[in-house]
Amino acid sequence: MDIRKGGPGDVAAVLRMFDSAIEWLVAQGRTGQWGSEPFSADPKRVGQVTGWAEGEGMRIAVIDGEAAGCMTVGGPLPYVSAADEPELYVQGLVIDQRFHGRGVGRALLDLAVDEAREQGVDLVRVDCYAGDDGQLVRYYESCGFRRAQTFTVGQWPGQVLERRVSDPVRL
């Protein structure tokens, strides 16, 4: 797996990743996270991905020449409180479900920690959907993140998690 900087040429591939993730979630009856409609059919979501691609924080994981996952890092999103110290915030993370189980998400999250270290920042945060059975929160915990705070956006329950660059790696 290689990870490279993303850009405007990756928008279609990232939208396909989100669409594949939504299809997978819908098949499991888990529509609370992102709903049931493809990102590629929602102008707001297309604009969000395009904005990420035009910024400096998009990273694309590539396996066998194909885009397998995407992470975007930057500052905290408007619906969460900023940290009391410098931080690197994972604004988005998605994996093309064709590459499920191949460590793509973990590799991208580890890259965020490495980038924070290079910037002299000790805190990496991410937020995620905290509804249903909490499986997504547990995934981030398995990647070394700890629960920090909960929030809601409308009826959408969220969880902010954090990982210290200075923490020992946990498996």
Unreliable stretches covering 5 or more consecutive residues: none
Strand order of the largest sheet: 1-2-3-4-5-7-6
Number of strands: 7
What portion of residues belong to β-strands?
25-35%
Distance between the termini: 20 Å
Order of helices and strands: EHHEEEHEHEE
- Alpha plus pi helix count: 4
Overall pLDDT metric: 95
Rg estimate, integer Å: 15 Å
Shape field: globular
- Helix-and-strand structural type: alpha+beta
Helix share, percent: 25-40%
Task: Write up what this structure looks like.
It is a single chain. This protein has helices at residues 11-27, 43-54, 104-118, 135-142; strands at 2-5, 58-63, 66-74, 87-95, 123-129, 146-153, 156-164. The protein has a seven-stranded mixed beta sheet with strand order 1-2-3-4-5-7-6, sandwiched between helices. The radius of gyration is 15 Å and the shape is globular. The chain is an alpha+beta fold and 171 residues long. It has four helices and seven strands, in the order βααβββαβαββ.
